[in-house]
Amino acid sequence: MLLAAFASRELWEIIGLSLTVSLSATVAAAVLGLPLGVALAIWRFPGRRSVIIVINALLGLPPAVVGLVLYLMLSRSGPLGALGLLFSPGAMVIAQTVLALPIVTALSHRAAEDLWAGFGDALMDLGASRWRAVPVLIAMGRLSMLTAVLAGFGRTVSEVGAILVVGGNIAGYTRTMTTTIVLETTRGDLPLALGLGFVLIGLTMMISAAAFALAGRPS
């Protein structure tokens, strides 16, 4: 039965959707979070400490609450209801991005703080502006930045609560590996749930290993 399930087109579509949604959310969180984390390490401004505290406090965002807030915003009566994103892969990407963004920002900020303390004066002496220092620090700390991004990916690819609320777990449209695992477990199909769990772990390890292998290559 397990082999037959993995031979079905539906299951591979579920796996493909899971990776598409999670990787899209991770990229979005990285594009926003890496520069923001580095900027917080470089610039000094009133309220900076409070911003850093809030970002770190958001590391433990409850997924179900995030899903509920987004549901209210994306529903027909909500402020973003006209976009028609509720119960779609787009809503799932938004939910996962919200959950991953504080992780990427906080971890990149910690890495950039050490780099700025060690090399900030040298960069400024060489004529680099603070704006130009942002991509330089990201490149210098690429392994630490990659760790931040992969931590965000771990949050997105394992997410269940928020995407259940805003995605609806619709067969053939918004059903992912994690929501399928929950569904099959409640149905009593433990072999399929375990099989999908191993696939999820394997894909996560492969993506992380490939990313570190590429990042570690000399330029």
Can you walk me through this structure?
The chain is mainly alpha-helical and about 220 residues long. Helix content is about 75%, strand content about 0%. It has helices at about 1-5, 10-40, 50-55, 65-75, 90-125, 130-140, 140-155, 160-165, 175-185, 190-215. The longest helix is centred in the middle third of the chain and has 37 residues, at about 90-125.
In percent, how helical is the residue content?
A: over 70%
What's the Cα radius of gyration? 20 Å
Strand content: under 5%
Element-by-element helix/strand order:
HHHHHHHHHH
* pLDDT averaged residue by residue: 89
Largest sheet: none
Name the overall outline.
globular
Strand count: 0
Oligomer: single chain
Q: Which consecutive residue ranges, at least 5 long each, have pLDDT under 50?
A: none
H/I helix tally: 10
Distance between the termini: 48 Å
What is the gist of this entry?
This protein has 219 residues and is an all-alpha fold. The chain has helices spanning 2-6, 9-42, 48-57, 63-74, 89-125, 130-140, 142-157, 161-167, 177-187, 190-215.
